[in-house]
Every structure is written in C-alpha cells, then in structure tokens.
Amino acid sequence: MSRAPLYVTRPLLPPLEEFRPWLESIWQSGQVTNGGPYHDELERTLAAHLGVEHLSLFANGTLALMTALKALGLGGEVVTTPYSFVATTHALGWCGLTPVFADIDPVTLNLRPDAVEAAITPATRAILPVHVYGVPCDTAALRQIAARHRLALVYDAAHAFGVADAGGSLLRHGDLSVLSFHATKVFHTFEGGAVVCHDAAMKRELDLLKNFGFVDETTVVRTGINAKMDELRAAFGLLQLRHVDAAIEARRQIDAHYRAHLAGLSGLRCPQQPAAARSNHGYFPVFIDGGRALRDAVAAHLREHDVMARRYFHPLISDFPMYAALPSAAPARLPVARQAADSVLCLPIHPQMSADDCTRVAALLAEALGRQRRDARI
Ligand SMILES: Cc1ncc(COP(=O)(O)O)c(C=O)c1O
C-alpha cells in the first residue's frame, strides 16, 4: 500500500473558508501593502502574543536579519555559528560584515561562550548567535561577553517563536532578535519575519529602513530597502495566531511519541529534553553516532520508504565555498559543529502527523540501524 510521503514539516494551513473574510476585506479596501491595517494589527497582536514590547514585521527573515544589522550601523567582524541555516551568515555578507566562526556546545548545539570570547579581535563589532532548533543559547554568558567587549548582540531567533526561558520570552535577550515566518516554521506567513527590539526609537529606525528610508511622501533619510510585509501575509498571520497554540501542542505530542519509541534504540541519541520553560517543538533532531556515512545510509533508508528526514545542518555554513577560505572556517577549529553536522538527522514533525506516523519512523530507524550493525559484522 502506497503512503503519502512524510515530509520534515508541512505548513500549517487553517481551513480556507476561515481566510475568506480577510481576503474580501482586503479586496474591498484595495490596500494590499505599505503598512496597511492588517500589518499594524499583526505587529500589535504578535508583540502581545510573544510578550515583547516592540516588533517590526518584515517580508522574510533574511531581510529582517540584514535590516537588524544595518540598524545597528555595524562594520567589521561578527562572531557567529557555522551550525545554522546559511541565511545567518549570508546576512552578514550582504551588510559588508565579515563572519568569524566559533564552535558550538555539544549539548545545546549553540555558540559556546568561551569559543566566542576566543574569537574576538579588535575588529569585532557584534555577536550573532542562533537559538538552534529553538533551544535557548547561554544568554547570560553571551550578555556578559558582549558587555565586557562593548559588542552588539543580535540573536537569530528564526527557530524560537514562542519559546520562553525562566525569565520570560527568549526574544527579550540581546539588542535585537530576529524571527522567520517562513512556511517551514512553527508560525508562518508563507514568507515573513520580524525584528524584536526594546524601544520605540529602534522600532522607528527599523520601520524607516524597511520602507526605502521614507519618512514622508518626499523625504528619504536612510539608504533603506524594500522589506515590507504585505496585507495578505499579515492577514494570514492573524489567522495563524488563532491556531498556533493548538499546533504547538500537537507538536509536543509528536515529540513525546518519538521519545517513547526511540528510547533505548542503540546507536541513536534523542535530543535532551528542552531546557526552555516553554518550547515550540519546531524540530526533532536525532544524532546517529558512527560517522557521516552511517547517518547518510540511515537517511537514505528512510527516504526509500518516503520519510523525508533532513540533515539540518549539513554541510556546515563554514564549508560553503564563499566562506571556506576564512581562517575561522578551518575544520580543526570547529570540531563539535562538524561532529553535529555529520550525525544529525531531523525527523518529520508537524501538527498533521499521527502517532502511527511516529511509530513508522521509529520502526524504519530501528530497521536501518539494525541493518548497519549486521553489515558491519560481515
Ligand atoms: C536559523 C535561520 N536563520 C535565518 C533564516 C532565514 O529566514 P527566511 O527563510 O524567512 O528568510 C532561517 C530559515 O529560513 C533560519 O532557519
């Protein structure tokens, strides 16, 4: 019996009927972009939902990252992680900044504060950590390092929608935090993103920059860009917000099923239970010890059975050709990141999955690992 492929994620799409009234209202008003009513409403509603004071919406997370870096007026080196989606580092390049890679922590897979500090030079201006898979960085240590060296601290929080630590929203940390609302994310607007900041002046700066630098019809005061979110996506975001808590709860149940089924499976490590006070269960990475070839063989076995697990984040960003020649990209300097990239497999996790789907994935993993062990003995 053929089954539908199980993708690593699927976009949360509420019933189309629920979206129709918003579409009708946009058609009636004729205002489809340029800071319309749904854009402003989503900014207010999201800020309240996320427990932050100021938030500026963007067309996507990459433009949000670039605009955040631009708003801080940075130039020089930025210490960042090689274990992320490539947009984290690309945003630096687009802003004329030089990435300096530092190694990660083997448990959280986020930047290791001591490695960050060792990478700082007189040219360093900022730190750009990522809350990878929504797992909180060591925010206290990073804050101290940034303060000690007078560096800006910008969090790539693309995976951290709704995540909280003991003190509240994770997005309160750093000078700025950047979210992605791409279709692969827990909360999405097809394409979209946001920058979270701490005061109205920075919010004004971000708003200026994302709209070409216009302050009124004829006055341009910044070399801005077009990074605005349009009304369709903003309206869809308002609809998504009604469903996102239920979606995160469904993800939590998938996470629990996986943990129950995979416990004790030899050769495979599940992620630690998230240390966050509130997680979003956006990803379910497992680690297959025994080298990249073994991990790739397990991934291929799943794929043969229509389970599209993904090797996020392989290759490391530091291995891409535009970064590989940087001194900080030398493999010997990033051993933990390399080990993670060689062993990780992100399993499908999304609200439409059933308990049976988890059982099927776990059975395929057991089969693949058993086969590898048998082959190794031959
Ligand atoms: C860690 C990280 N940073 C940045 C981005 C870029 O966001 P976007 O795709 O919305 O441009 C993504 C994902 O897409 C991401 O996973």
Automatic annotation (TrEMBL):
Domain of life: Bacteria
Xref: CDD domains: AHBA_syn (cd00616)
Catalytic residues (UniProt): 185
Key words, A-Z: Aminotransferase, Pyridoxal phosphate, Transferase
Residues the record lists as N6-(pyridoxal phosphate)lysine modifications: 185
SUPFAM superfamilies assigned: PLP-dependent transferases (SSF53383)
GO terms for MF: pyridoxal phosphate binding; transaminase activity
Gene Ontology terms describing biological process: polysaccharide biosynthetic process
InterPro entries, per database record: DegT/StrS_aminotransferase, PyrdxlP-dep_Trfase, PyrdxlP-dep_Trfase_major, PyrdxlP-dep_Trfase_small
Similarity section: Belongs to the DegT/DnrJ/EryC1 family.
Protein name: DegT/DnrJ/EryC1/StrS family aminotransferase
Species: Candidatus Methylophosphatis roskildensis
